[in-house]
Design goal:
The chain is an alpha/beta fold. It is about 40% helix and about 15% strand. Helix 4 crosses helix 5 and helix 8 runs antiparallel to helix 9.
Length: about 270
């Protein structure tokens, strides 16, 4: 199954949805319209029962260089994008670029094949995991444009790499490579460049073969919601979720597959947003 918007491609195969930014001549810099196309592709994948997880990557030598300079200039001048290009969030949604990924009830992995700068850095950050090619590089870029820590970077980045490291990366806007990103904790795996997408897909296929998609969805929701809770309410919330999990058919299947020493046959689901 595939959908091919002008600069974003979606392919769903073998339990994996691959969302590919496809504007290589511009280092996959995204226009306002392309931002809407990325969202459409991710949400299509999230709603497709055949996809257990989603991989986001770029075509060519870049993951994404961030917002296209023409649209960046429009933003700086106060010119608002029009139509579906704006992709304005609803009233109950966080006003941060790509924040909807946090509410997709499936694993979303950034397969960072090259440079991830500015908005491209934000896209990688908003994904649940980051697999990076050995040649990948990263930069927040905001301070070099006279901007601030945009789109949730001041909240998420310190939780990934630590407070002082986040400040340094945000202040300097310097470029750092995949090896440093891994040492800092921003990247989860470093992969030979020509295998970064395949490794991310293989990870999701392994999940599809061995674990409950519903468990993945609930755990993702727990982890992000509990970041802003104290210990006691988080534990009480987990206890309530556990009671629900024990009544779900996946719990019975998990026990049966273990006792019978066979692969589990967990239910698939559409993965509506939380």
């Amino acid at each position: 199954m595939s959908h091919d918007p002008s600069n974003v491609k979606l392919e769903i195969k073998d339990s994996v949805a691959v969302v590919r930014l496809d504007r290589p001549e511009k280092l996959n810099a995204f226009t306002f319209r392309m931002v809407a196309q990325i969202r459409d592709a991710v949400e299509r994948a999230g709603a497709d029962e055949s996809a257990v997880g989603i991989v986001v990557t770029g075509t060519g030598r870049a993951f994404s260089a961030g917002l296209d300079t023409t649209d960046l200039a429009r933003s700086a001048s106060g010119t608002e994008p029009s139509g579906d290009a704006a992709a304005n969030p609803s009233a109950d949604e966080l006003p941060a670029l790509f924040s909807y990924i946090l509410r997709i009830r499936k694993p979303v992995i950034a397969a960072v094949n090259g440079v991830a700068a500015g908005g491209g850095f934000v896209l990688a950050m908003m994904c649940d995991l980051r697999f990076a090619a050995e040649s990948a590089s990263f930069t927040t870029a905001f301070s070099k444009r006279g901007l601030i820590a945009e789109h949730g970077t001041s909240w998420i980045l310190p939780r990934l790499v630590g407070l002082s490291r986040a400040l340094e990366l945000l202040w300097s806007s310097r470029r750092f490579d995949a090896a440093e990103a891994f040492r800092l904790g921003f990247v989860d795996r470093i992969v030979p460049g020509d295998r970064v997408v395949e490794e991310a897909c293989a990870y999701i296929r392994d999940l599809a073969a061995n674990v409950s998609p519903r468990s993945i969805a609930v755990i993702k929701s727990q982890v992000y919601r509990h970041l802003s809770l104290g210990m006691e309410p988080a534990i009480r919330d987990a206890d309530e979720s556990m009671r629900e999990a024990l009544l779900h058919p996946d719990a019975s299947e998990g026990v049966a597959s273990f006792v019978e020493r066979r692969p589990p046959r967990f239910q698939r689901f559409r993965g509506e947003k939380i």
